[in-house]
Amino acid sequence: MNGVVFSRSKARLLEHVRWLSLSQIQMRSLSQDHGEYLPALCNLRGLLFFLAEVQLVGEGQFQPCFSAFRGTLTYLFIDYISASFDALVSLVDYFPNLRALELRLYGLGPGEGLVPSLSRPLRGKLHVHSSLGNPSEFLSRFAKLDLDYEVLVIEPSTSGYFGGPTFLESALQISPNTVKYLTMTDEPQSE
Q1: How do 46-50 and 100-109 pair as beta strands?
Q2: pTM for this one?
Q3: Element spanning 182, H or E
Q4: What pLDDT band is residue 19 in, cutting at 50, 70 and 90?
């Protein structure tokens, strides 16, 4: 858009964006690489991270990138990223109004520090794909967080394999007192 649209017009145009897909990024360089337009996305509702590397960064590094849409973001899809558990929890916790979280991770590291606690219970819909590197371990750790999901969707890997009884047992530990709708699909779905 540089050289084509004037900067004030760019900002007004970006105010109307509701969904954003960020692919092949590293969280630590996000501000440097995309900091020019991210602050103008003040009405963003959905964010997709695809083929990204999420390192543990402090709120000070989230602030310049995500503060414009921190309060408006309701849907977060984390698709084929590499992250540590604590970095993932920090990212999810940064957005206070999330109502839908979809996870498909390929590399989940052990963590870079203590797992942060959530500042509030996560509510709404959780959609988990069993293509996680070690889905049972992840789901067991995730279930220990303060979760109040009402809708839980469990989807098998692309081969149709749910990950065995350990995966299902771990998945069913998520919000057992609040889940009203449980869906276990045998073919991939999307929002």
Answers
A1: unpaired
A2: 0.81
A3: strand 181-184
A4: very high
What pLDDT score was predicted for residue 4?
A: 43
CA atoms within 13 A of residue 163's CA, in its CB half-sphere = 24
Please state, in angstroms and rounded to a whole number, the distance separating the CA atoms of residues 67 and 190: 27
Sequence length of the chain is 191
Tokens of 67: 């503060």
pLDDT at 188 over 60: no
Angle subtended at Cα 112 by Cα 143 and Cα 157, rounded to the nearest 5 degrees: 45
DSSP β-ladder status, 53-54 and 75-84: parallel
| CA distance linking residue 113 with residue 86, whole number of Å | 7
Interatomic CA distance for residues 48 and 139, integer angstroms: 20
Copy the structure tokens of residue 172: 């069913």
Domain assignments of the chain as residue spans, ordered by start? 18-184
Q: How far is CA 187 from CA 73, 153, 156, 160, 190, in A?
A: 27, 12, 7, 7, 10
- Sign of the dihedral defined by the CA atoms of residues 71, 72, 75, 76, in that order: negative
The rounded distance, in Å, linking the Cα atoms of 117 and 187 is 33
